[in-house]
Amino acid sequence: MVTPAHPPGSGGEQNPAYVLLSPNHGCRPAGPAFPMDSARRHQLLSLLRGLGLDPAAPGGPGVDAAALTPIDEALTHTSAGLPRNHERLEFLGDAVLRLAAAEFLEREQPRLGVGRRSAIRAQLVSDRWLAELAERCAIEPAIRIGGVARGDRAARATLRAECAEALVGGLYEAWGGGTAGLATVQAWLTPHWRRDTEVLLADPHRHNWKTALQEWSQGRGLGLPSYACEQRSQSHGDPRRFHCSVHVGDLAGSGWGGSRREAEQQAARAALERIRPPAGR
């Protein structure tokens, strides 16, 4: 969910980093607040405490409806058709997430080179990782979703990722932005990043097996891998919708996926496992 980078006054869309650094970044646009009944307020409080955050603690925003408005906004998807939705805070969350991840790696992996840190950070802020985070933290039940989106199984991972990123922005804003807001985001994400960074350090090409296979083949003068995909199902929610095979030199592999991209990644993974054992085995 990367937003194009344009400096202020360039005529293009503003980079989230400029929003983060702006003295007005914590100000909400004018407009009526979300109506929030007691059940919704308790649902949001339960979610926050499940994330290890207590809005009633010193320095927290409090537990009334006004204090929880940024969290409610972050967890209201556009498909719900309400005046306020997750998009504004997703935009802010994109900048906060990248800064928080960079600080995490600087603090906890200082010996890694910049290139390696950049590759790991890309994984730790990816849509795939955000969707997994939302599932791991049981965020989806708290998301307001429209009826059509609720029935679209294929789009659910994207929806989870969008609202997880918006929640990063919502937490940052609710806790006042700046150092306090960033510290709150890091308090939530650091345990998850620690766990997943260990996995990525053990298997640097995890979830990017196509790149690994290409590097292997080009390093041996074999050229680029050749992929062939076939759609086997018309169901958008079918995890075996596509079947893909890959060949490079005498090496081959095949895999399934709910999308062509996923099937290609699984085929590349299968090919790599023929030449080296998977990490952790």
Number of domains: 2
Radius of gyration: 21 Å
Uncertain spans, ≥5 residues at pLDDT below 50? 2-32
Structural class: mainly alpha
Percentage of residues assigned to helices: 40-55%
Strand order within the widest beta sheet: 1-2-3
Give a count of the beta strands, DSSP E runs of length 2 or more: 3
Features:
single chain; 281 residues; Double Stranded RNA Binding Domain; 11 helices; flat; 3 strands; mainly alpha; 3-stranded antiparallel sheet; 2 domains
Description:
It contains 11 helices and 3 strands. The N terminus is likely disordered. The protein is mostly helical and 281 residues long. Strands 1-2-3 form a 3-stranded antiparallel sheet, covered by helices on one side. It has 2 domains: 179 residues, Ribonuclease iii, N-terminal Endonuclease Domain, Chain A (Orthogonal Bundle); 67 residues, 2-Layer Sandwich (Double Stranded RNA Binding Domain), CATH 3.30.160. The two termini are 33 Å apart.
Question: What layout of secondary structure does this protein have?
Answer:
Elements: H1 16-21, H2 38-50, H3 69-74, H4 87-108, H5 114-124, H6 127-136, H7 147-150, H8 156-174, H9 178-202, H10 209-219, E1 226-231, E2 242-248, E3 251-257, H11 260-275
Antiparallel strand pairs: 1-2, 2-3
Helix pairs in contact: 4-5, 4-8, 4-9, 6-8, 8-9, 10-11
